[in-house]
Amino acid sequence: MPTFKAIRIDKAPEGQKGTVASWCYFDEAGLMDGDVTVRVTHSTVNYKDGLAITGKSPVVRRFPMIPGIDFAGEVEASSSGEFKPGDKVVLTGWGVGETHLGGYARKARVPASMLVPLPDGLSAAQAMAIGTAGFTAMLCVLALEDFGLTPDAGPAIVTGAAGGVGSVAVALLKKAGWHVIASTGRASEADYLKGLGADEIIYRAELSEPGRPLGKERWAAGVDAVGSHTLANLLAQTKYRGAIAACGLAQGMDLPSSVAPFILRGVSLLGIDSVMCPKPERIAAWQRLAQDMDLAKLAAMTTHVPFDQVMDTARDILDGKVRGRVVVDID
């Protein structure tokens, strides 16, 4: 059977803790069950990929594992009636790169149910510039819209705004007509965020410390990728009957808040999960991304790296050195 280049994660040698990531040539016979084999052309580096490769969090739950929670490419072989050889496809989530061999390889085999057709108007590289981060941002925007919020309700805030989810969320909310407040810990990114559509910049320290149960009402909606005190402060300063879409935990998994915003202002917390999101919702979100994503802004927030720089980039994303989105050119 042919082999192909991949990143492989194994448990650390006996007597050591954690995991070890290394380059290898993987035998195609070792791919997991699935009815579609994809020639992977592009992937991306998300925060979760950084955790998997560095072993700083127990993201990987099967060994050996090929990491990479996203990929895009072309169907090479299929026994599914849904896809045929030559079809362009996208995958995000479903535990790929965690429990199912992932996208940091030249080939992947998965069930057809995990794949979405590449939307018209997007290339594989652009789909990976969006990736899980941008897909999650779109789910957040859709959740706020489904909740009934519109731009005339007040501003929308985005935390972790210079990161992957945040960058796309800023651009999408601006496209939808919102007055966008971007929160970042990097003052140097102010011009970048304004270029994506941010109307105001506030700095992370304003939200990241313990705050009051209720504060001045400042925004009607929000996209939070940070969690912990930041999310608690967002809720405390949300306008009457506003909502925050929560999708991340960069600051922490805790939520040191109170019931005050919920019972005194009718604020809602909307949980966003992109990993197990049902396929019809995925297709709708990708179609909306193809329609609403400003490709010039997408290009402005995207860096391309060759396959052999994935592990360095994974470390950089955990160190807060990565702005926006990263596309990995697997081919």
Give an overview in words.
- The protein is an alpha/beta fold and 331 residues long.
- It has two domains: 3-118 and 301-329, Quinone Oxidoreductase, Chain A, domain 1 (Alpha-Beta Complex), CATH 3.90.180; 131-271, Rossmann fold (3-Layer(aba) Sandwich).
- The chain has ten helices and 15 strands.
- Strands 3, 4, 5, 6, 7, 14 and 15 form a seven-stranded mixed sheet that branches. It has a six-stranded parallel sheet with strand order 10-9-8-11-12-13, with helices on both faces.
- Strand 11 (219-224), helix 6 (228-236) and strand 12 (238-246) form a beta-alpha-beta unit.
- Helix 1 (47-54) packs across helix 10 (310-318).
Give the low-confidence spans. none
Distance between the termini: 20 Å
CATH topology assignment of the largest domain: Quinone Oxidoreductase, Chain A, domain 1
Number of strands: 15
Question: Count of DSSP helices?
Answer: 10
Structural class: alpha/beta
CATH superfamily of the largest domain: Medium-chain alcohol dehydrogenases, catalytic domain
What is the total domain count? 2
Gross CATH architecture of the largest domain: Alpha-Beta Complex
Key terms for this structure?
331 residues, alpha/beta, Quinone Oxidoreductase, Chain A, domain 1, Rossmann fold, six-stranded parallel beta sheet, 10 helices, 15 strands, globular
